[in-house]
Amino acid sequence: MPADPPSTRALAARRRVGIRIRDARLWANLTQESLAERVGLDRKTIYRIELGTIGARLDWLVDLADALGMPLADIVRD
Question: CA quadruple 49, 35, 58, 42: dihedral positive or negative?
Answer without folding.
Answer: positive
